[in-house]
Design brief:
Length: 453
Amino acid sequence: MAQANKHPFDHGKRPAPVLEPLAAADSITHAAGHKNMQQLIQLRWIAVIGQMATIAVASMLLDVQLPMPAMLNVLACLIAFNIASILRWQENQVVSNSELLLALTVDVASLTAQLYLSGGATNPFVFLYLLHVILGAVLLEAWSTWTIAGVTGLCIAGLALFSEPLRLPLDQERGIMSLYVQGMLLCFIIDAALLVVFVNRIMRNMRTTASKLADLRQRAAEEEHIVRMGLLASGAAHELGTPLATLAVILGDWKHMPEFKGNPELLEEIAEMQTQLQRCKTIVSGILLSAGEARGESSEATTLDVFLDALVAEWRVGRPVQLFEFDNRVEADLPVVADSTVKQMISNLLDNALEASPRWLRLEAAIEANALVLTVTDAGAGFAEAILAQFGKPYNSSKGRPGGGLGLFLVVNVARTLGGTVAASNRAQGGAVVQVHLPLSAIAIQSEPAHDY
């Protein structure tokens, strides 16, 4: 079978589809849970190293009698559990609250076993339980946090009831020179250091997650706003169709009336009115086409150079720009689809620049890193800092009129929907620069491989 060309927007095959809000929110939440689990895995390795160092120092330097085989077995089990955790969470990115609770419970059980073998509640390192309770309060849901608190309380009570005291000299009156006081001081330092490091990391993850969720909510609100605007625009376009057609008929009649045929100035004005009327009809057709209600027009296959040249030629008509420069730096012409949405996006960008700089305007097109890069430069007053900070937000404009800022808002959202980006900046010599990056896959015609039957 011969190769067939397909519209890049057919069958939902956009190169960078916008995720549904709920799916995107789940993805962000899962990423945060996975990062938190990675923090627990790192903390567990620190616990392994710390336990090995403590056992070695206590038995070799302080001559404390410890059941080495049993304590090393507990340590081996903790190492095995952490290796299993690494393997599991490399494959699975979704971490639930119950799995975080299980991980913390295993850590509490490991600490309880080591304390049971080394003095129980009399071991100064018993205060390490607070580390797990605080981590639970930060990472877990409320019921899970109370579960960890209850488990650690029961463990301490069990250690006090069933474990043998650690045989240390009762010399607390020596203050800092007391071995027990030194152990408590070391336990406090470890607790404080680990809490500062890991709670800060976890809170940073949470702030990042909250920021991404806020951006997602903003994006959903913007897309809902676009849908409402589209419905209103589609309705208005339907309503405008009849009066525009009436005006076209009237102007056609005027052009053939004797009163006008003998007046070249009036004929010139009628021609200008017909040109502007045709432009209005083209805009209305574009709105209906974008809404899926084509009026005898459709996207068509063309090449990138032809598409850009036609767009610029169409945009020049009726625009009062004194000097417009178009620099086409596309070296290898590519087959693309002349899509009305992309055309309207670029026209909106040029219209916005024209309002700021009616005397001079420049459009540059180039291909960089498999993307079409469109750069619009003007010689206007540039963007205010507040506008740049909220670039692309609806009604974010210094024009001071109703609907200001919607042009760039639509440009940003169309580019984002196609997997592209829009960036804005001010020029040092005055004026502004807006640059659009569109993946070539978003506008290029994709060819299916040939199949022989």
